[in-house]
């Protein structure tokens, strides 16, 4: 995307252009959500049942985009507001940046990307155009100056993407992924791709790209752009992330059955949106609650692993032009500050009452419940957490007068918690399955929240010992380093034909590196030859399934990566 309706930023989209396209393809953008009135007194909702054992997608994070060439870079203070997790912060754990069209443009967003990496944030990049020398013009639906990548330049374009990835890595930013093209099906102002062209590139050229590959980033989650990728085994093998935008996408089009059928081992990300529009102030209330419902449905109905906004700083975005959180930003922070990368969405009653939306997430013994009440009166809501005991509960609320405001602590008793959801509000609850009290404040940066530390007691070990499933496995290791530390994200995919019941990943940390905390596995020892063993909720790894783990570590100058891994003693393929 490029243009919006908010001032003279170079390269922003003409207002009627997107609306015309939406009308042409028959889409009906959802502008606002209507709130029903329950009545003047507090109403009671059905019990919302939370099942920590019923796990869905692993969350990669929430975030937004910087595009210095079009909207100016974030200031130092704004970077910290965007990516830190304390009071008054957005808590974003994903940053999207553009791929420069020439090497002279590669460094435009580097400063913000480097600070994001220092704070443990995942960075990925999307291109709008290849270098000019690789483009040809053609006529498309009456557009006489339409642009496309020359067919004889596909290999050169893959190298261009590699050059950008290498430049960023050499300057301290190890990209998590790179996209083939931003909105190839809405490219009046940039480069068009047909589905045939996209599949051809993925089949023949994407395998040479030196980081994870994302495609197709359709502007409206048009399934005809991504279906051919899922249906082509070679193209799919060279694609790591199916990316999509949600401009005008109806909620009924959020589920993706074909991805669930054929996307094993792949990730599903929502990589750009503003919602419900770009014309109103982000502080318009209660309209900002629409963002909360949109995010809820993206997590629960679409089962996206990531939710990424357009410009981080904009009058209609999560950060106002003065660098402070907007109401839309506060709503996003209700997710982003507490549902951290590596958390897993778990089953919860999604709609226990009219205009009440609930989702839940787990990391180790920590459970996060996000509840939205769009009604004009308060709602009494009971949560029943299966298998839980009694524990303290911390909570934060955003409504017409408060922004992610901490509330008085309460208690869950025998897995039951009854609360009042204020009228037109969003509340995040953090509790523990183990009976201990959660932290009184959200996790501070770096943005990883360990579920267990390397020194956990034996009682925290997996409930099963490794059995069976000794077939091949694939490991992807992504490292983001700063002056004296780094975070490492590790994806383990079972590429064998049998289920792995209990796993241990072994690798050797380079000299001078020491693990200080970890998540989704127990790590021992903290340096040298390390074993990462599953925790109680992720020990089963079906064929084609992927588990995401990671850790934070210090270093003394050596930022090299482990060269080999074994899973249950069997060497892994490293990608």
Automatic annotation (TrEMBL):
Please report the name of this protein according to its UniProt entry: Cellulose-binding protein
Q: Which GO terms describe its cellular component?
A: membrane
Per the record, the GO terms for biological process are:
carbohydrate metabolic process; sphingolipid metabolic process
Superkingdom of origin organism: Bacteria
Q: Which residues form the CBM2 domain?
A: 466-575
Tell me its family. Belongs to the glycosyl hydrolase 30 family.
Identify one Pfam family in the record. CBM_2
Q: Which GO terms describe its molecular function?
A: glucosylceramidase activity; polysaccharide binding
Which InterPro entries does this entry report, sorted A to Z?
CBD2, CBM2/CBM3_carb-bd_dom_sf, CBM2_carb-bd_dom_sf, GH, GH30_C, Glyco_hydro_30, Glyco_hydro_b, TAT_signal
| Low complexity bias spans | 434-467
Keywords carried by this UniProt record: Hydrolase, Signal
List the residue ranges of the region (Disordered): 430-472
